[in-house]
Amino acid sequence: MPLRLQKILAQAGIASRRASETLIAEGRVSVNGVTIREMGTKADPAADDIRVDGRRVKAERLRYLLLNKPPGYVSTRSDPQRRPTVLDLLRGVREYVYPVGRLDYDTEGLLLLTNDGELAARLTHPRHGIERVYEARVAGMPDDAALERLRRGIPLDGRRTLPADVVLLNRGRPGPAHAGPRGRREREAVLVLTIREGRNRQVRRMCEAVGHPVRALRRVRIGPLQDRRLKTGMWRDLTALEIRALQRAGT
Ligand code: URA
Known about the structure:
alpha+beta; Alpha-Beta Plaits; nine-stranded mixed β-sheet; binds uracil; Structural Genomics Hypothetical 15.5 Kd Protein In mrcA-pckA Intergenic Region, Chain A; 20% helix; elongated
């Protein structure tokens, strides 16, 4: 299938689409021996001889990985503060995969990584409202009013969060007592929140807003993807069935 050259280069992991355009403008890209400088030129990665600086470009296979991220890792490809990144956990993966959406440094749980830029863009587009399910251990025991506020939506940065599903897991039972930040033992509850958008630190800020700051946060589902058996720090390729389910979720 003919594709725009900059897209082929990006998919092959040569450079981002924008940087690939620069490579083309600089006359460093050739197709079947002819230097291409015109943006938007198409080629067929399966049939054409595409080269950058004379080196043959091979189409990268599409990878879809599910990682169970531990706390203490950033979910970007590189970190200016040089903290460990989720890429450090993907030893042996040669394709240029990147995280679809983010988990905070302290958050653990499921993270999807892929080099399929089209699917990644569709899944993160707010229009599709892909469900993300989080288990949050929070300080204190939220009452019905607090739960109702979380469900209806919380104004963050002047815009209310979309309605969420919120379930209190340990109602009626005393919550586990843990040492709080000041060394005092504090009561805690576990909430399961289903949200349909991915705003910055959304769950933490929602819980904080109703007076129950998050002590630990874990994502347990992304749309159709869940895996209770995937150990923390481990990853696996998605199955063909899961990839199809994701593609359906993003249409
Ligand atoms: N909400 C948060 O507050 N943090 C995350 O990492 C994900 C969702």
